[in-house]
Specification:
single chain, alpha+beta, four-stranded antiparallel beta sheet, 6 helices, 25% strand
């Protein structure tokens, strides 16, 4: 049995796609997952399963969400080891920063640095980004809402063909803790 986190893209933010967390917990249980818990309202759930790999689990959750709510909700699933690795490999001094200053964008697959060639890092200083394993670390000293770098990194020309969802550092750390065996 492996502990996982499900990261839903764009739910309960901006009023577009509503997924009550109680319904998400119930749905994950119906899929045969155990130890289900949610974190915040923004589409974070943890569960235990022996039903397959991350991509298969994500596809099953996405299909079940569409069947239940009538709309497509992209989902990424990451196991506890991957989440711990993302936290351990943070290239920024996370312990010295506020959670709102550091974000991780999780991708459905590895991304090549060439994808970000159109983004001039020097033009966005002191904001910075670094690539990790199916993740992008983003340092935004004034928060995400005012970040021009975040806007540049999320342009369709950069993200085309990817499933991506971002979490602030507080959420990343909480999910790491919730998925520990």
């Amino acid at each position: 049995m492996t502990r996982y986190a499900a990261l839903l893209q764009g739910v309960n933010v901006g009023g577009r796609t509503s997924v009550p967390m109680a319904d998400l917990r119930e749905l994950l249980g119906e899929l045969g997952h155990t130890g289900v818990a949610t974190y915040l309202r923004s589409g974070n759930a943890v569960f235990t399963s022996d039903h397959g790999d991350e991509d298969t689990l994500a596809a099953g959750i996405a299909q079940a969400l569409e069947a239940r709510f009538g709309r497509s909700v992209a989902c990424l699933v990451r196991d506890a080891a991957h989440l711990a690795q993302v936290a351990a490999n943070c290239p920024f001094p996370a312990a010295e920063l506020e959670g709102r200053q550091l974000h991780v964008t999780f991708y459905d697959r590895p991304v090549e640095p060439a994808r970000f060639a159109s983004v001039d890092p020097a033009a966005h200083l002191p904001e910075e980004f670094r690539l990790g394993d199916r993740a992008l670390y983003l340092y935004v000293p004034d928060g995400l809402g005012r970040s021009k770098l975040a806007a540049a990194l999320s342009r369709p020309a950069v993200t085309r063909g990817l499933v991506a969802t971002s979490r602030n550092w507080n959420t990343v750390e909480a999910l790491v803790g919730m998925t520990r065996d």
